Amino acid sequence: MPLALEQLWTGNPDSCHSFLLEIATRSVGTYPVATWFTIMLPYKYCWFYITFMVFLHYDLVFAQFPRQCTTQQALLSGECCPGLFPLQSPDPNDQCGSTLGRGQCAPITIDSHPHGPQYQLDGQDDREQWPIRYFNRACRCNGRFYGYNCGSCKPGWVGDNCDQQSVAVRRNILDLNQEERRRFIEAMDLAKNTIHPDFVVATRHFAEIIDPVQNTTNFENISIYDFFVWTHYYSVSKTFLGQGQGSAGGIDFSHEGPAFITWHRYHLIQLERDIQALLQNPSFALPYWNFAIGGNQCDICTDDLMGARSNFDSTLLSPNSVFSQWRVVCENVEDYESLGTICNNTRGSPIRRNPAGNTARPMVQRLPEPEDVALCLEVGLFDTPPFFSNSSESFRNTVEGHPSGQYDPIVRSLHNLAHLFLNGTGGQTHISPNDPMFVLLHTFTDAVFDEWLRRHNVDSSQYPLENAPIGHNRQYNMVPFWPPVTNNEMFVSAPENLGYAYEVQWPSQTLSITEMITIAVVSALVLVAIIFAGTSCIVSRRRRKNEAFQPLLAESYPRYAEDREENTQAV
Ligand SMILES: O=C1C=c2cc(C(=O)O)[nH]c2=CC1=O
Ligand SMILES: [Cu+2]
After folding, report:
1. What is 38-64 written as a DSSP string?
2. Is the pLDDT assigned to residue 186 strictly greater than 50?
3. Can you give the pTM of this predicted structure?
4. Are 50 and 17 spatial neighbours (Cβ–Cβ below 8 Å)?
5. Which of 5, 173, 413, 414 is least enclosed by beta carbons within 10 angstroms?
6. Amino acid 39: pLDDT
7. Does 412 contact ligand 1 (Cβ within 6 A)?
8. Residue 442 CB less than 6 A away from ligand 1
9. Ligand 1 close to Cβ of residue 429 (< 6 A)
10. Prior bond of 409 cis (ω within 30°)
11. Which atom of ligand 1 is nearest to the CA of 432?
């Protein structure tokens, strides 16, 4: 719901106070002290207080773009280059921290290579050549500075000057102790209930982003976790064809192509960094769920982790889990598609999860096996033409969940199978991140990718430059992230380049059938050779032994008998 700005213009202290209360309620996690002050504030001082709040957090009142860039003026200028004033720079004209040498406003580079044949509606979709429909200039940060206004540091660097290294260690959630589990769940819940301090989301397509009648723009505040859900929804939503004409598929900026890996990698980094900033703890790390354990049990669906099954409704979460209180965003996909709207911050139903409960699809009632991971890690090529869900001998397609590249609408493995196993909110692409299992499922998928990079020692030339589905080419800016970030930038080893590392015990490598046959044949040959050598040895030793008891010359035998006779007589 948009903030009731009209309340302010009445000049009535009551209205002013309720306006402030609305802001405070939405930002209770981000600005707890401000919330407390608001509640305690005598009405007559409301206007002094609002001036103070705007000065402190001037970005709070104005609005997946930085709040400062969602004014009509910014949209019409095509420039999104916010400055660091007043919190970090004393200069009100600062753009991108240029007054402190952190960055400058520069043209955005876009990918101009051809895309694959899946999408044929070029010119229709706001997300093409992202983010050029909205902005053509953004902050370009120097050195290790980073962010929409160059006010933060590149992943892996911290400190006022971004000169201290920091690596967050992502661990198996089952290896966390009780206190670590509690802290992780608390952090997730805080992210679910805290308004994103920097970003807002568009609730209309570009053609309607400015409302000329109301003289406003169509953006909304959203919580940090719901922002994470919204970005996934926006990346997979269909192309709107116009009022009354519905929407068209053939487009997915984050699945069924090479960007599946790089897109979800940045998606997780964004959430991890947002939570690090929220907690003011740069070592906060998202854990992972090793879903490749086979069987039909969800080992982390317990109340101290991701929530047990409810006793009252087997498709809901137990009331003892905080996640049973979470409400889903972006669930009215049919409405968005027919009305030409975009998901907003409205929350609806609770999370549904019914692991292994899909009797209609027995294939998805079992989790992937450890061998599936071991085999996947052995695939030598990152991706293969047509860089889609039917690519064969492709590491990306294998880990995404189309085994051996034989596209089959029924068969799923690894990542896709883990989603479908959840059998509820987490199994439906438009809303899946609403279930926090999504985070842990994807950190594990990302861990497999990082291990694959390490084992195969690849460079970015393995990532397709062109002819991948739209949004999936190497130099494409991933939709809808801001500041613009290419697939290429995520195709690097995490510990050295992205500020996080995984602690994982990988299943031992399995042998291929050819390798097993070769080993069996060689072993059999070696065994035969040993037996032959051993037998020859025994035979020749026996022969030598026998020879030792035989007379050296045939005629000496009577002489030997004579000698024995002589010796006997002597005795
Ligand atoms: O959220 C997702 C849900 C998915 C379901 C499938 C499938 O293979 O049917 N794949 C999915 C990917 C997701 O990201
Ligand atoms: Cu997924």
Report:
1. HHH--GGGHHHHHHHHHHHTTTTT---
2. yes
3. 0.81
4. no
5. 5
6. 46
7. yes
8. no
9. yes
10. no
11. 1
Q: What is the mean pLDDT of residues 428-448?
A: 98
Q: Which amino acid is at 309?
A: R
Q: Which atom of ligand 1 is nearest to the CA of 438?
A: 1
Are 274 and 192 a contacting pair, CB within 8 Å?
no
> Best mutation site among 231, 232, 236, 255 for ligand 1, i.e. most ligand atoms within 8 A of its Cβ?
255
From the CA of 420, give the closest atom in ligand 1: 5
3-state helix, strand, coil in the chain (%, to 5): 40, 10, 50
Question: N- to C-terminal Cα distance for the chain?
Answer: 127
Q: How far is the CA of 271 from the centre of ligand 2 (A)?
A: 15
Q: What is the DSSP letter of 100?
A: G
- Cβ–ligand 1 contact at 419 (below 6 Å): yes
Q: Is 34 a residue whose pLDDT tops 50?
A: no
Would you state the structure tokens that stand for residue 53, as one six-digit string?
Answer: 């709040």
Nearest CA to ligand 1 atom 7: 416
- Ligand nearest the Cα atom of residue 421: 1
Which among 27-36, 284-293, 501-510, 514-523 has the top mean pLDDT? 284-293
Q: Edge-to-edge, what's the strand order for the sheet holding 79-80?
A: 79-80, 137-141, 103-107
pLDDT score, position 86: 86
Helix axis angle, 46-56 to 13-26, nearest 10°: 30
Cα separation values, 219 from 64, 200, 211, 293, 478, Å: 9, 6, 11, 43, 20
Cis peptide leading into 131, omega within 30 of 0? yes
